[in-house]
């Protein structure tokens, strides 16, 4: 049975679900920062997924990245799987702008997180829903 790592649960908001992955919003309003978490137990590396799941994760990552670029007008989408602090496989998708607080450096450890308001979370979800309309389920049950 899949269980979201406690650190991911504490630092993010579950907003939806693809066929394989949960979609989270990192609770830092300085960056539209989304995280895909494949719903597989005891997986810390992409190569540990079977071939079908690896392909599905790549598809979900591409769908999400393209949607984020369109919905948020990103200058760049940073995609990364670090896992140094949280061993559960998760893929960060961070919308970057030339004017964001960390540009051009990586966002990790640059500034303390600024939590979203409920209204800001709703706005992020609405923006994403305008362009990412298939292959995902959104809903209150995921928050």
Give the secondary structure arrangement, pairings included.
Elements: H1 6-11, E1 12-17, E2 21-26, E3 33-38, H2 51-72, E4 76-80, E5 91-96, H3 118-131, E6 137-138
Antiparallel strand pairs: 1-2, 1-6, 2-3, 3-5, 4-5
GO molecular function, one term: hydrolase activity
Protein name: Diadenosine tetraphosphate (Ap4A) hydrolase
Keywords: Hydrolase
Brief overview, please?
With 143 residues, this protein is α+β, with helices and mostly antiparallel strands. The chain has helices at residues 6-11, 51-72, 118-131; strands at 12-17, 21-26, 33-38, 76-80, 91-96, 137-138. A hairpin with a 3-residue loop joins β1 (12-17) and β2.
Describe this structure in words.
By secondary structure, the chain is of the alpha+beta class. The protein has one domain: HIT-like (HIT family, subunit A), CATH 3.30.428.10. Helix content is 29%, strand content 22%. It has helices at residues 6-11, 51-72, 118-131, and strands at 12-17, 21-26, 33-38, 76-80, 91-96, 137-138. Helix 2 (51-72) packs across helix 3.
């Amino acid at each position: 049975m899949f269980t979201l790592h406690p650190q991911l649960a504490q630092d993010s908001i579950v907003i939806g679900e693809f066929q394989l992955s949960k979609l989270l919003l990192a609770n830092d309003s300085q960056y539209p920062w989304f995280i895909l978490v494949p719903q597989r137990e005891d997986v810390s590396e992409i190569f540990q997924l079977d071939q079908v799941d690896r392909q599905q994760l790549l598809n979900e990552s591409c769908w999400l990245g393209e949607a984020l670029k369109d919905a948020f007008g990103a200058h760049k989408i940073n995609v990364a799987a670090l896992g140094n602090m949280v061993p559960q496989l998760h893929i960060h998708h961070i919308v970057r702008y030339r004017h964001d607080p960390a540009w051009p450096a990586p966002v990790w450890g640059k500034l303390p997180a600024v939590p979203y308001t409920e209204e800001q979370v709703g706005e992020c979800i609405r923006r994403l829903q305008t362009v990412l309309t298939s292959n995902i389920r959104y809903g209150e049950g995921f928050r």
